[in-house]
Amino acid sequence: ELQQKVEETEVLKMELQMLETERVRLSLVEEKLMDVLQLLQQLRDLNISKRALGKILLSTLESCRDPQPGKAQLFEVLDTLQQELTACELLHKQPMEQAQSPQSLSNPLVISC
C-alpha cells in the first residue's frame, strides 16, 4: 500500500510538472500575442493600407510554411509576425509620439521635434 501511494505521488508530481510547463508555454504565447497586437494597433494608427498589411501576413505565413523541428508552430508564427511587423518601414519613419496619437497625423501644421 505504501508503494502504491509513492507511485501515485510520483504520477501526480509528473502531471503537476506538465501543467506548469504548459502554463509557462501559454504565458509566452500570450506575451507574444500582446506584442503583435500592439504593433498592429500602431500600424492601424498610422493608416497602413490593407494591401501592405496583407503582404506582411502572407510573408509571415510563407516563411512559416515548413515548421522548424522542436519549435511550436503557433509560437513560431507569432514570433515571425512580430519580426515582420517590427521591420515595417512605417513604424520606423514616424516618431513614437505620432504612432500613438493619430490626431497629430491628420494635422500637417504640427511639427515634431
Q: Number of helix segments?
A: 6
- Major beta sheet, specifics? none
Rg calc: 22 Å
| Helical coverage, percent range | over 70%
Mean pLDDT: 80
**What fraction strand?**
under 5%
Distance between the termini: 76 Å
Low-pLDDT runs: 96-113
- Oligomeric status of the shown chains? single chain
Instruction: Supply the helix-strand structural class.
Output: mainly alpha
- Shape, principal axes of CA atoms: elongated
Order of helices and strands: HHHHHH
DSSP strand tally: 0
Keywords: Coiled coil
Coiled coil: 2-46
InterPro entries: CCD48
Organism: Phainopepla nitens
Which descriptors would you attach to this protein?
113 residues; mainly alpha; single chain; disordered C terminus; 6 helices
What does this protein look like?
The chain is an all-alpha fold. The protein has a domain at 1-66. The chain has helices at residues 2-45, 50-63, 73-86, 89-93, 96-100, 102-106. α1 runs parallel beside α3 and α2 crosses α3 (73-86). The longest helix has 44 residues, at 2-45. Residues 96-113 have low confidence and may be disordered.
In short:
The chain is 77% helix and 0% strand.
Layout: helices, strands, pairs:
Blueprint: H1 2-45, H2 50-63, H3 73-86, H4 89-93, H5 96-100, H6 102-106
Helix pairs in contact: 1-3, 2-3
